[in-house]
Amino acid sequence: MDSKPEPESERRKARDAQLRTQDELIAQHLAESLRSGELQSAESFGKPLAEAEGWLETPVEFRLPFKILKNAGVAPPEVEMFHRRAALREAVQAARDGAERNALQQELAALETPIALRLEALRVKGSL
To answer: Are 69 and 58 in contact (CB under 8 A)?
Structure first.
């Protein structure tokens, strides 16, 4: 028997139906919690959700991607670069040997360029 691949539109319809089913289950659980009084006993019931730290300072186009990364426990690449820069600066200050200090300063200088380019791209274009 020849099995043909399912067309994209059929896969999309199946996925949409599955999402509707999940939404309906969530709505059902919320309605049950509301009827039982479980929701009203929550400390934050009826109050606006607290904004995450830095939410308003984050450009709108980066809010969702950064939130997804944060929820996944992954820092944006720029944050990793800033942490690396801070560690290098501390290492330069702590270095006792001139050769070691020079090597660390070169590594720091090499890191400063991509940081500056990424920040300038963000400033000029609003994206990286």
So the answer is: no
